[in-house]
Write the structure tokens for this entry.
Amino acid sequence: MRYPAMLLLFSLVAALFPAGLPPARAGESPRPVAFSPPADREIPAGPFGDLVRKGEKIFTQTGKYAGKYVGNDLTCESCHLDRGRKPYAAPLWGAYVSYPRFRSKNMKVSRLGERIQGCFRFSMNGTAPPLEGDTIRSIVAYSFWMAKGAPVGTPLEGTGILRMAPPAHIPDPARGRKVYEARCALCHSADGLGTSSGGEVGFPPVWGPRSYNRGAGLAKVAKLAGFIKMNMPLSRGDTLSNRDAWDVAAYVDSQPRPADPRKKS
Amino acid sequence: MSRTSPSFRFLPLSLFLLFFPLQSWAGELENLGKRIAQEGNGSPGSIACMECHRLHGGGMPLIGSPRIAGQPQRYIEHEILGVRAGTRYAPIMAGVVSNLSRKEIRAVASWYAIVRTPKLPDVSPPDPTLLTLGKRIARKGMWRKNVPACVLCHGADGRGIPPHFPYIKGQNKGYLLRQLIAFAFLKRSDDPQGLMRGIARRLSPMERQAVAEYFSSLTPPPADGLPDPKQ
């Protein structure tokens, strides 16, 4: 029997680190530290401040300020809540200090600008803006400003999206549909296509032709579950059970959406 | 098959819509609703909606009776039912709507959903010392208190996202403030998933006031894309 030995080893390790979290060691990622981004009034005057403000505009009204790169009804802020500031909604301050970074998505070390290009291609179902162009430059400047004072290369609390512990069951889209109808359809509508307001997008579509494509991060059930768990419904994040978050994510990602542009049909 | 170009084919319809007053093409349900709004439903002692909301839904800022012109029909219906069921605290209106049938409620909601009326003067001009704060909460939120921007759910500038989220721009300030307080202190619990209860509770009294000042300072929307008979 191998298991008792493993259990013994595990309890030994647990006894060595009574706080629950092992302290950081060389070669391991250190414990996440808390960070809050600066207030809006700290955006400086002058050309750099202008670029930051432009980045914020592109971020919150992407269709209006970077429309030619956008292929759906989403904005950056649809996922990166509170103008890219909210912890666990992939905040820009967390992203800024995490790049360059190796990504298994394309097996490359990417710079932040390249990562943002990916957002446009997949989450916005559009095309990548040029790296040296205004769009990427201003979003990078906005991110840099927001990360002011953050330690570089150290994980910050709330960076990225919550990594859910593996589910205790196989996520069930049929059950997820019930959760969706009870908790999500109010805003995103039962058909998932969002809700319009005076001819403009009110609540963003979560599937269908105007939503993110299959290559987007949120098209992966685990990521979507983590996003939903911490952020949805707006103002009531962390009220769905883990099971509900997994199931509703499985349901949403089982619905039709644009194809992954990397895959030729 | 007619060979007229599409724009000409729709010309008679456009002219019709342009020159006929709204009421003339309002359906049967809306006309029933209008009658109830004007006279009550005929049961003894029934009170007409217009005594507080006016016939065209302008409300009465002086007593904090809300403007309801052009709110989504489903929303109005939902609120009347909430008042009746007691999930929405409104002691006066509860008596008024208690004898309305389900069909009459739908009719009244349909009437007020299609009428349009200009904004009425509010009890006082917007408080300039609170407008900046109000605008900030409205458009950016106060996420450190887990309060999202109001416009995320109530639409750009608060013009509403039908059918569940009412417009709040151009609403009178007394009503807005009273509802925020009612949500915060559990006198109104008809909001889906308790969203407004949570948000209103997390705002301070000054922040609630500021939000009311800001949205009441705006112009109400011509909702639902229907032609506005006044313009």
Remarks:
- Chain B is about 50% helix and 0% strand.
- Residues 15-24, 224-231 of chain B have pLDDT under 50 and may be disordered.
